[in-house]
Amino acid sequence: MVAAAEAFNSPHNRGRETKVLLHLQHSFEMLLKAALVQKGISVFDPALGRSLGFETCVRKAAEHPDIKLSEPDAGTLRAIDAMRDDEQHWFNQVSEQLLYVHARAAVTLFDDLLRGVFKEPLADHLPDRVLPVSVDPPRDLALLLDEEYTQIAALLKPGRRATHEARARIRTLLAMEAHTGPETRVSSKDVDRVQAGIRGGATRSEVFPRLEELATATDGEGLLIKVRFVKNQAAPPVRYAADETVPAAAIREVDLQAKFHRSAAELAGALALTQPKCVALRRHLGIDADPACCHEFVFSSQRLKRFSDNAFTRMRTARDTLDLEAVWRAHNPSARQLESCKVPGCRAG
């Protein structure tokens, strides 16, 4: 984190964005692993013999009741990781304002996690004088995104010969969609669609509908400023397109196996429920019928249901607020099977 702050405040521009994002992402991976170990959670995959990856650490920290990584905070980490991924493996361009707002949000979140898990303020390790500083204070996020979108549209105008720079900026805005979900990875197809949409005169909300859900909350001023990414309560509901007849800019390819990454057994384990009681709660909430929570994968003759973080979040809230015994009595899968069986001596369930 110190290295990220030093890179941000460096007078040298060469490689600055890359260094800031690389150090921010790495600092959080190490902090999350330390937090998990502190809570008795292993950070090694015994099958691979390697430590867990960044996304797995984010998920485990979000699931743990003592770490309490919220959805917006997890989104902040995923966005930093997505931008870092493009900086490290391809080419993107992050505007100074967007880099600053993510760096300050990272410092705020790092301090929150360090205090919450280890009871230590970041100020004990990082003097105020090295925090990310900008002469251009953060403005409303919607305004920043509009300015960036206008700049991209100008770069794509005929005769500018600036398509390469425009596509680099497009990659940054696509990476920012990681704030709203775990499945974001920027592909060339995504960039092509957005480029076509902008050249076709589409608005920002049509091209980047998921960014409409995003806003920032800013407290304090000067060196003590705190920035957090939050859900935009005024945003209209986003409709996701799934066919090529819809305007190209609105379509976003999603890695379904990354989004729906939990098996039924893994979901039950994460919720600390037996599998039958997990099935009962799923039925009560209609999880299996909700396309945002459940997806059925077909592999040859096999049909496997997998579940998303949306399912986990809804079920965790229900687990903590509902009368689970009443849910069990109403939706007990074993009892339902026995009741429906008409064969004498049947031992279904």
Walkthrough of the structure:
This is DUF3644 domain-containing protein. Residues 1-140 form the DUF3644 domain. It comes from Streptomyces filipinensis. Helix content is 51%, strand content 8%. It has 349 residues and is mainly α. It folds into 2 domains: 2-254, no CATH class; 257-340, no CATH class. Helix 2 packs across helix 3, helix 4 (71-89) packs antiparallel against helix 7 and helix 12 crosses helix 14.
Summarize the structure.
The chain is mostly helical and 349 residues long. It is built from 15 helices and six strands. The protein has two domains: 253 residues, no CATH class; 84 residues, no CATH class.
Question: Would you spell out the secondary-structure blueprint of this structure?
Answer:
Elements: H1 2-8, H2 16-38, E1 44-45, E2 50-51, H3 54-63, H4 71-89, H5 96-118, H6 141-155, H7 163-176, H8 188-199, H9 204-207, E3 214-219, E4 226-231, H10 256-259, H11 264-270, H12 275-285, E5 294-299, E6 302-307, H13 309-321, H14 324-331, H15 333-340
Antiparallel strand pairs: 1-2, 3-4, 5-6
Domain DUF3644: 1-140
Pfam family, one: DUF3644
Protein name: DUF3644 domain-containing protein
Number of helices: 15
Oligomer: single chain
The percent range for helix content is 40-55%
Total domains? 2
Gyration radius from CA atoms, angstroms? 23 Å
As residue ranges, the low-confidence spans are 238-248, 336-349
SS class: mainly alpha
The chain-level mean pLDDT equals 82
Strand count, sense and barrel status of the largest sheet are:
2 strands, antiparallel
Overall geometry comes to globular
Count the E strands: 6
Order of adjacent strands in the largest pleated sheet: 1-2
Order of SSEs: HHEEHHHHHHHEEHHHEEHHH
Distance between the termini: 53 Å
Approximately how much beta-strand content do the residues carry? 5-15%
Domain DUF3644: 1-140
Protein name: DUF3644 domain-containing protein
Organism: Streptomyces filipinensis
